[in-house]
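Problem: given the chain below (334 residues), write out its structure.
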Amino acid sequence: MSRVDEPGRADRVDQAGRDVVCVAGDGVELAVRDYGGAGAAVVLLHGAGRTLADWARVAPLLAEGHRVLAMDLRGHGRSGDGTVPWTFEVAVADVRAVLAACGVPEAVVVGHSLGGMVAARCLERLDGTPAAVNLDGHGMGRPEQYVGLDASYVRERLGEARKFAEEAGGQPFSAEALGGVLGYQVSMGAELGVPGELMEAGVRRSLGETADGRLFLRPGRRQAAELQEAMAGIDLFALYRRVTRPLLIARALRPNPPVPGVPPWVDELMAAYVVGLRRDLDELARSRPNVSVAGVDGTHAMVLERPEEVAGLVAEFVQCARSTGRRGRAGRGA
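Solution.
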């Protein structure tokens, strides 16, 4: 697979950072943007089908008081695919490789959507990770979280949704159709108050090229199916109950805008899931002192549409987590 690299006007939104390449344990090249800064280190992970370009407005705000890195997850943006299946364990190993290469092994891992799920896994698997932030990375949950709906019905619908997502991944299109793809993304961003140049930068960074010269948005078909399998197989709340270091979980307080062509039962499912998710997150916050739960006044695209709020939430949490860690170390040494 080749990748399309078009440093056009839309890419200039990201010029605050310095682009570097780190190499994973299996030789896959991982694209990283180093925003510099001083203070506690933070690494930023994007969601499925997205890229590090999503952090273009959040990262500079965090860099005012932190050392900030953003990375393209493998199979996304300008990072390689590799030959092994995409799993959370592989993603965690990639984060470890980037942090080691950049000299910040104790960085707080902050992720949005899929990246938030990876961040939570890092908190359990990376010894040096002092804390993690999961920004609306809830996946599709478990059937019992869909309040008021029969579990077997939910299980059937979730299977349909997963199949649709797998089939949609990596669909090729002609170079002539790129304008339409860009226009659709820009119009979606306009509904959320997101600058069009930022939406365009994300699309261009995601472009891949097939052997016959057509384009597609990464991840490709194989990686998209592997992502769906990985997300369906992780039990996030069991993971949350296991972690022993500070974890912040944020959820979007506003519904996503309607998507054309989505079956009517999707709205029914999402409404039921929101109720169950809120219930379970509230119980988690009450019962687990190391887990904090917050709301963000935005949709699932919070990183793009609410950069100041997201940056402030992360900065405050990192400061609190560092203070807690220092007190803990002092207590153990007494």
